[in-house]
Design goal:
The first copy, chain A, is of the alpha+beta class. Chain A has seven helices and eleven strands.
DNA sequence: CGTTCAATTGATACGGATCAATGCAAGTGG
DNA sequence: CCACTTGCATTGATCCGTATCAATTGAACG
């Protein structure tokens, strides 16, 4: 029996570049793993032993300075690839933001398999290039944008990447979604403090650009003005 | 005749993953190009038409916000790869910081060639993964470090990556190098202003950690204390 | 109803941006 | 060879945005 057959990310993860036979071979190398919210899957600086795909849930990639301040380097959604293949050490930590399900491989086994399957490597290269572009976009944000700009950009990214949950239902072009991160996580991602994030959110709310039904949910009420904020100096 | 035979980066650029025959084939697709200091090779947002290798000189990768503020996303040294293969648009600009010599390929031709040579793609994947790690390290810097920490980190990175030029010569463990960037470029890279960069440099000088023989050169006099500064909040 | 934990709100301090002036070296033309 | 220009870099004074410190509110849960 092949666990991949009913996998929800079968067509969107790197696996999509494999034939049924190849998939079977890869499947025999991997195993499923559940992660609880808050659980760390990979530790920064550890030997790189695992790589894998996210099947369900949201994780973060993060790194800490010597004095303990944390910076989140990226958010990882279902069908994204995790880990550092072809290298001895994990350069960053991976932590589950929600309960999550991942499909993991021993790095050495994955590396070997990948080298024998150029299509897989090509897919991985494409993903890595895209991720590099995305990361550089965040660099621009961290280097040059104001707190408002950062929060607005973040909300737009989430509106695009997080699975939208049904809005108010009427004809309005409202976009609603749940935040998989708490305020502290957002602050770590944007290079701000929790207080500043909070103030910016209430600021956007008071301007009527967004609504905050509850602490985990966001509704974008005026996407155009939000875009305007996202470009702020 | 094969221009690659006497190429100075033959063994360190992506070309190192190719046999002599393959190299000949790739060579027939490429052409050499000279760039003057300040010249832009790729424009952010343009159709991605070119990729290539840096043979000589230093370039920067940069992106601008809508209101014109610029952020440098990376520095590109000889044997580094330039451009965005496998994608229709260039997401960032590439500008020469010094006079430079690059070896360019039409993207479509390169893409096709790469897909037929898994070794080359593997090498490119490795490079991209390394570059992604490096970029994320800069994210940590931009998000969480003070001005002093940023400048110190920058100097350390340059001390490692730029070709060292002979120090004072005596037994001191002084490390000297030339900056390929002006103050404005440094500011753009670190997400600071030119004034702040200047103040931090003179600060480090006044503490005796570095010396500034002239505006383009730096001598690190106390690497340990510089490391200390680099970790500053 | 009290406990707990996260988020919000308020008051203040500080770091870096901004605005403005000066300094310094490399051309340029008389 | 020397005045003049030009383009960076440095230095100074002030302002503003975000961090920091501290208190309050609000929701989830026993």
């Amino acid at each position: 029996m092949n666990a991949c057959a009913q996998c929800t990310v079968r067509e969107t993860a790197i696996c999509s570049s494999l034939s049924a036979d190849e998939l079977g071979a890869l499947n025999s190398l991997g195993r499923h793993q559940m992660l609880r919210r808050g659980q760390t899957m990979v530790w920064q600086g550890d030997e790189s032993l695992l790589v894998g795909n996210v099947i369900e849930g949201v994780l973060k990639l993060s790194s800490s300075t010597v004095d303990g301040r944390e910076q989140t380097l990226g958010i990882i959604f279902p069908s994204d690839f995790i880990g550092r293949p072809f290298g001895p050490t994990a350069t960053h930590s991976v932590v589950a933001l929600t309960d999550a399900q991942v499909c993991t491989f021993r790095r050495s086994a994955f590396d070997e398999f990948a080298q024998q399957h150029p299509h897989l490597e090509h897919n991985l290269l494409q993903r890595t290039l895209t991720e590099l572009d995305r990361t550089r976009q965040w660099m621009l944000l961290l280097g040059r944008k104001s707190a408002t700009g950062r929060v607005a950009s973040f909300l737009m990214e989430m509106a695009n990447r997080a699975a939208p949950c049904a809005g108010a239902g009427n004809g309005a072009e409202t976009i609603g979604f749940d935040l998989p991160l708490g305020r502290q996580d957002i602050a770590d991602l944007l290079g701000l403090t929790i207080e500043t994030v909070s103030r910016q959110l209430t600021g956007l709310r008071d301007q009527g650009i967004i609504a905050i039904p509850n602490r985990r949910a966001i509704e974008v009420r005026d996407m155009e003005r939000l875009e305007g904020c996202a470009e702020e100096a």
